[in-house]
Write a structure and sequence with these properties.
The complex is a heterodimer. By secondary structure, chain A is an alpha/beta fold. Chain A folds into two domains: 1-79 and 155-164 and 175-236, Rossmann fold (3-Layer(aba) Sandwich); 86-154, no CATH class. Helix content of chain A is 39%, strand content 26%. Chain A is globular and about 45 Å long. Chain B is mainly alpha-helical. Chain B has a single domain, classed as ABC transporter involved in vitamin B12 uptake, BtuC. Chain B has helices at residues 2-29, 36-53, 62-89, 97-119, 144-166, 168-178, 180-185, 190-216, 223-238, 243-264, 269-283; strands at 124-125, 134-137, 140-143, 218-219. In chain B, the strands form two sheets. A two-stranded antiparallel ribbon of chain B has the order 1-4. The chains are: A alpha/beta, B mainly alpha. Chain A binds chain B through residues 50-52, 71-73, 76-77, 81-82, 84, 88, 90-93, 97, 100-102, 104-105, 135, 149, 153, and chain B through 168, 171-172, 174-175, 178-179, 181-189, 292, 294-295. The structure holds adenosine-5'-triphosphate (ATP) and magnesium ion. Magnesium ion is lined by residues 42-43, 85, 161 of chain A.
Chain lengths: 236, 297
């Protein structure tokens, strides 16, 4: 079983400390929500997992892999994919090209085409827009393209950074359903969200982090009814 | 008139070949590689050495031998380009841009005076001179070698375009130009792709160098300086960072020069070219095809 374990991690950007003794786990097959306010360290956590930044101390393992020593491309090769904050769609490339890039490390071109086809089935809007430039898509469409692009990489573990950001409630619901479907097809998901309500609805478990440290954790159903979470993240 | 157009397109295709490397490298790591023109010079000298060593075969076999030499020189200059990036630019990738720019100028001197040390300061005569009987087409005087060189240049650019626009590696190249961090998340090994970009750009510059040697007949260690500036001009005219822009810019610059010198006289050729550069930098810095700011390849 490939379990993701982040243990007592400190992460710095020069002198700014973003993570302080962060400790959390994601079991295979789960959707785990990672909640927290602006600047709490959610994006930093994901960037560290994809090898963009190295922790100063602590360990990060995924199954028997030590993620802190791997290059970003080796991490993708190991099937850990990251849908970044703000989607980061390649703006002057078509939707189809964006999806193809998700399969950059997949040598079997037929498999790439199959996965692109599956992404189109999951998100038919993308098929309609396949020859449109990524930069001209609506926010919701860009989010779908970003998720689809990661799916073409065939993720075993999918990191999602605020997929609901800037989307209308109806689209948020659609995106959450897509994530649920991705889990159902066998992918483990670590879901970063500020929209705690939407995230906890589909998550199995959740963590709340503040200033780079976990302050609450538990089953999603417990967090949903926890008064502190309700006050801080779910509104009145 | 047709003569002026033909001459412009012919010289322009050399400019285009060199401008492509300039532009691709800028697109992908935002570096103005001032040593790029010297890679062209290096191509000439490589061709000079290789052709000198097979001089017995020249004459009847000139053209096929020249093509083979062209290919080998491209491999060589391509490799040199990769090495230059690795030793001179890569260690400075997160340094201020000015530091890298100065390193590029230094690299240019290293190549120029390295070659001067080996071959001496005076011009060398290229072993093959592609001259031939002219044919006349719509009043323009065209020689067979010119046509051959144009065809080679066009073929190289065609394959490059296919590669960049249609292949997996080409997509990765474009993705880095657009968003390096996002392409890391796609699993793109940025170091490899940057190396490959330097290889391709330097190989094309080397090809242009061999072709120029064979066409003009004389080469020297400073020949890369002016062409480097011209290629930069061409890249700016087309829209720096843009692949089609580099090709178009090369041809446009060739034509501008051809017509400009016809009106002003040959001695004004370079002045005119750089006046065009300044005009573009001040009035249309994005170049002809660079209107979309985010498009960099
Ligand atoms: N590249 C960086 N350089 C310097 N400091 C950074 C960098 N990225 C993040 N930080 C700092 O690290 C801290 C954590 O940032 P992070 O982006 O991880 O927060 P976040 O939880 O994702 O916030 P948000 O919800 O606003 O996206 C912040 O104080 C931020 O200013
Ligand atoms: Mg964030």
């Amino acid at each position: 079983m490939a379990k993701l374990v982040i243990d007592n991690v400190d992460l710095f950007y020069h002198r700014v400390q973003a993570l302080r003794g962060l400790t959390l786990e994601v079991n295979e097959g789960e959707i785990v929500a990672l909640l927290g306010n602006n600047g709490a360290g959610k994006t930093s956590t994901l960037s560290m997992l994809s090898g963009l930044y190295r922790p100063k101390s602590g360990t990060v393992t995924w199954g028997d892999r030590d993620l802190t020593t791997m290059q970003p491309w080796d991490i993708v090769e190991a099937k850990l994919l990251h849908v970044p904050e703000g989607r980061r769609i390649f703006s002057t490339m078509t939707v189809h090209e964006n999806l193809q890039l998700g399969g950059y490390l997949v040598d079997d071109q037929k498999l790439v085409d199959e996965r692109i086809e599956r992404a189109y089935e999951l998100m038919p809007r993308l098929r309609e827009r396949r020859n449109q430039e990524g930069g001209t898509l609506s926010g919701g469409e860009q989010q779908m393209a970003a998720i689809g692009r990661a799916l073409v990489g065939g993720p075993k573990l999918l990191l999602l950074d605020e997929p609901s950001m800037g989307l209308a409630p109806l689209i948020v619901k659609q995106v959450m359903e897509i994530i649920k479907e991705v889990q159902a097809q066998g992918t483990t998901v670590l879901l970063v969200e500020q929209n705690a309500r939407a995230a906890l609805r589909i998550a199995d478990r959740g963590y709340v982090i503040e200033s780079g440290t976990v302050t609450m954790e538990g089953a999603a159903s417990d967090l949903r009814t926890n008064s502190k979470v309700i006050d801080a993240y779910l509104g009145a | 008139m047709t003569q002026l157009i033909w001459n412009g397109l012919f010289v322009g295709s050399f400019y285009a070949l060199v401008a492509i490397g300039y532009s691709m490298v800028y697109g992908i790591i935002k570096l103005l590689n001032f040593a790029h023109g010297d890679v062209y010079m290096l191509g000439s000298f490589t061709g000079f050495l290789l052709l000198g060593s097979v001089s017995g075969l020249l004459g009847t076999w000139s053209l096929p031998v020249l093509l083979l030499v062209l290919l080998l020189s491209m491999l060589f200059t391509g490799t040199i380009g990769v090495i230059i990036e690795k030793v001179a630019y890569r260690p400075l990738r997160s340094s201020p841009r000015l530091a890298v720019l100065i390193t590029a100028v230094g690299m240019s001197f290293v190549l120029e005076y390295g070659i001067r040390q080996i071959f001496g300061p005076s011009p060398r005569v290229f072993p093959v001179r592609l001259a031939g009987d002219p044919i006349f087409f719509l009043d323009a005087r065209i020689t067979l070698p010119q046509i051959v060189l144009m065809v080679i240049a066009a073929a190289l650019m065609y394959f490059l375009q296919r590669y960049v626009m249609k292949s997996r590696e080409g997509r990765a190249m474009r993705s880095i130009a657009l968003d390096t961090q996002a392409s890391l998340l796609m699993g793109v090994n940025v170091n490899k792709v940057i190396s490959r970009t330097f290889f391709i750009g330097s190989a094309l510059a080397g090809a242009a160098g061999v072709m120029a040697g064979a066409y003009y007949g004389s080469i020297d260690f400073l020949m890369g300086f002016i062409i480097g500036l011209k290629a930069f001009t061409a890249a700016v005219i087309g829209g720096i960072g843009n692949l089609y822009g580099a090709m178009l810019g090369g041809l446009v610059l060739g034509l501008l020069e051809s017509f400009g010198t016809n009106w002003l006289g040959g001695q004004w050729r370079d002045v005119f070219a750089f006046a065009c550069l300044i005009a573009f930098l001040s009035f249309k810095p994005t170049g002809l095809l660079g209107e979309r700011v985010s498009e960099r390849m």
